[in-house]
Amino acid sequence: MTYKNILYKGCAAVCLIGTMASMVSCNDEMVSPEMNEKVLISDINLDVTPVLPLLVGSDTILNYSVLPENASDKGVIWKSGSPEIASVDEEGRIKAVHAGTAIISVMPAVGFAVTSTVEIKVVDEIIFIEDINLDMTENELEVYETASLQLRWQTIPSDPTYPTLKWESLTPEIATVTEDGVVKGVKAGTARVKATATDGKHFTKEFTITVKPIIFIETLSFVKESDKLALGEVYVPQLNVKPGNATLSALKWESSKPEVVEVDENGHFIAKKYGTAVVTATADYGDGNPISASMNVIVAEGKMNDSFEFMNSWENFNGQCLEFNWLEDQGILSLFPGADKNYKAIRIKRTGGFEFNVANYPILAFKVRFPKDVFEVSEKMEWYLDMWGGLSSGGKYGADTNKGNKAMEVLDCGDYKVFYADFTKKKVNTEMMPTKLQKVDNVVFEIWKIWYEADETGTIDVDWIKTFESEEALKSLINEEKK
Question: What was the pLDDT predicted at 113?
């Protein structure tokens, strides 16, 4: 088994701040004494991995901290969901009683903050780590100065009781390493990092990583001088760089308006608010001649660009999909349809709705792939776009014709079908969409009467969901993707 990013410390709780207000008598001359303001616990952080294995008969005390630090009453209450497997006392001492799994929870003694939990896995024996190997080739064990490298590893045996490793750099002046096994180059040379098992035997092994010197950037520009983003979109810009193997991790990024477009150290843009910002990338090698390039970024009203590469804003609506999975590594939604009498059906809904501006983006399109021949043999298939909440006349798109069934046009895009609505041509229920920024609380795409043979196991995949400035812009993208 390969382990990557396996240590996640802490169980956060949602903040809830409560205060006791001073009480004043209705009679202005009689004022009750002020009550001392109480500061309640808003967070309880457990210093433990999400799953904690314990050997039958052993015990341990969980370390924790509360926020804010000036809480009036820092007392907490511990509870075990299965005390016959793992018990816990008022001090947070957990005793492993019987093999199995138990959930230990902790909550404030005063207040209503969300409970923090940890899963206790009680085992009859501990399987110790006997060896650690990196699941990487020699060429992969190289990193440039300023760049980062995620280590991948395997343990022997592959299913240890305590799979978490403790990482340490033995040459921090050459490279550092995080608790998750991410190595960052500091200066050229050979770095040594040490991995130690966190079980009782503490098996240790050292590894070497080559840190290569920076390859300086000579020329730098953005492929696009300007682009439009959707609110909430994560965007990775394309760069023209010479030489082609220059070290991009040396770039420093800056946004003129981080409240509009935020940019992280890896050059990922995050659209935070409608507006315009200029993002600048700079390579400064301390020679007095920094190299930089800038890009104009517009966060546009009405633009949707849900491509499922970095995030997913859609959910299974009313449980209609038997299976609903966001496959981030493939950048798709993978759906297995649920029952629709003798047929199958899917319904998906955009989480939180969407702010349309059909004056800017009147086309809403869904790119969908069916299992082979399913679309063609589903002669009775129906599809709808349903929108309500925030509209004076919410309902089906194109409802005045066939109750909205097949109101969305369909275009071929290789193995995919693109279903699209044009809000300049058809109404939503009885009215046209307003030509201004308009929040719609519920946006639902649904397909009914899908014919699946009894042995069909293929999924229906959604590649992207986008808005477009025109039908021509949609068809232009389809033609590009066909290539």
Answer: 65
315-374: pLDDT as tens digits: 999 999 999 999 999 999 999 999 999 999 999 999 999 999 999 999 999 999 999 999
| Reported pTM | 0.70
Query: Looking at the predicted structure, is the pLDDT value of residue 29 above 70?
Result: no
Residues 319 and 285 in one domain: no
Among 14-23, 105-114, 128-137, 262-271, which stretch is predicted with the lowest mean pLDDT? 14-23
Structural domain that includes position 98:
43-123
Structural domain ending residue among the three candidates 175, 191, 212: 212
Q: What is the pLDDT of residues 214-238, one digit of tens each?
A: 999 999 999 999 999 999 999 999 9
CA gap 147, 209 in Å, rounded: 13
| CA nearest neighbour of 108 among 76, 134, 137, 83 | 76
Give the angle subtended at the CA of 48 by the CAs of 42 and 52, to the nearest 5°. 130
Average pLDDT in the 20-48 region? Answer: 61
pLDDT of residue 279: 98
> Looking at this protein, which amino acid is placed at residue 144?
Y
Q: What is the CATH number of the domain that holds 324?
A: 2.60.120
Among 268, 283, 300, identify where a domain stops. 300
